[in-house]
Amino acid sequence: MGRVRILKVTGPVLIAVWTLVPLLWLVSLSLKGGDHINDGRFWPTAPTLRNYRTVFRTDLFTSALRNSIGISVIATVLSVVLATLAAYAIARLDFPGKKLILSVALGIAMFPTISLVGPLFDIWRSVGLYDTWPGLVIPYLSFTLPLSIWTLTAFFREIPWEMEQAAQVDGATPWQAFRKVIVPLAAPGVFTAAILTFFFAWNDFVFGISLTSTGRARTVPAALAFFTGASQFEQPTAAIAAAAVVVTIPVVAIVLVFQRRIVAGLTSGAVKG
Amino acid sequence: MTAATAPAAAPPGPVGRVQRSNGRTRAERRLGWTLVAPALVAMVGVTAYPLARAVWLSLYSYRLTDPAGRHFVGLSNYGVVLTDRLWWSDVLTTVAITVVTVAVELVVGFAFASVMHHLVFGRRLVRTAILVPYGIITVVAAFAWRYAFALDTGFVNHVFGLGNFAWFGHRGSALFVISLAEIWKTTPFMSLLLLAGLAQVPRELLEAAEVDGATRTQRLFRVTLPNMRAAIMVALLFRTLDAYRIFDTVFVMTNGAAGTETVSFLAYRQTITRTALGLGSAVSVVLFVSVVLIAILFIKGFGVDLARARGER
Predict the structure, then answer these.
(1) B68-85, pLDDT tens digit by residue?
(2) Cβ of A88 under 8 Å from any chain B Cβ?
(3) Domain A57-270 adopts which CATH fold?
(4) I need a surface site. Which of B38, B82, B91, B129 has the fewest CB within 10 A?
């Protein structure tokens, strides 16, 4: 039994070390100023917030941040609305082709996105979507729908829909029954799908670098990869680290608040007994 | 589904509790397809048409910088790709990264899942910690690891007394750092899927095995693992396909230098950087076909339960 107890203590500690060390390193790097950046130490010797000021004064980063937030939010809203309609139909209605849609979604989730980048680059340039917000929203929508549809279908199958009719028998109008009974039950699922979709759009790099070229639509991951520093003679390392910390804060916040929902969503589609 | 649980959102009509009319069935079908259509169009429109166009473009010699010079060359682009040593080197790199990362992730992910499974308190905290790498932007993670190992900014050489070892100057060590970053970022996903699988192993079976005198190792290999086979296979399928498409980390860390170019990176370089859409499309199509083959191998060869993967059970 002794071994098990040690495992119960060291196990969680090991997991925490595993996940946090690279993050701490990034934060400490972002706090290093000037010559300290190459001192080869893990912790900063003279912490400074200068890099953060640099980053927020750099147009490339601020426009990328705006683009990332705008594009991710729009893609998330559209994806969740379309997925909710589809998942409702799959979970509740009887019509031929349900299996086909779930299979199509599965196929698209496995699709190598890079295969589409060449043709999309070509098509987007000829129809004027290249380097625009919709030019990124559309592919994000297509590639997040599968995960949203699975998650929501799994959630909607668990909802006791008879309660809606029970409420109507008790004198509620159909709208009241829907709003007061079904919406609260469905909301957690919709919310989970929204978080996972947002993560996908926020994280994307392949479309971000291939379908944009300027600050008009370039997102944060793409901007980071092309960031060269405030001046030619300055290493961009510390500024990139600061920018990386800034865009990681929302992720950590979402994870802290919604960890239970995220876990439920990640595992509902793939492993449901 | 009986009429008793039929949707209230369907067109109003007398609720036939015993038998439902044909009109109602037809209305339900029409509503079903109407609700599904927008999502289906969005998914298929952005994948099927560009894929068809990639196949078509792959039959041409076509550079974006010289649109007038486009001409039909049949399958010769595929000949160029498949006889090129660079292509096979990239395939080897990609397969090596895929096999190593997925294997390590399976072992570490299972260890993490076991820790979380047996945890009594602090569950929330550990689950939160493990979700951070999952949510973090891949490019950001790649930068963190790159700077940690870099000659100028890094602390790794300093801490481990490795002097001036150039991690990104050699194929083996560069692939090691790339794989490490991938493993760090994606093990949480693997471990959460395996945790859900662990929860499905019947407790009575484990207790019965213990009563019968099975050792810890025997219980693991004879009871636990066989009972979570479906979860393991689904996790392996998703992670393998994901690892095989690796792009972001390579781009940030080495930009394909030192023999670290992967298949996805080659497709990107040909189509976007070199704007050789004909040749690049051929690479893209071969990449697509190889992904389909991997999926078929898993589904037919290893019997991954897709109904389970679709969340139908």
Answers:
(1) 888 899 899 999 999 999
(2) yes
(3) MetI-like fold (1.10.3720)
(4) B82
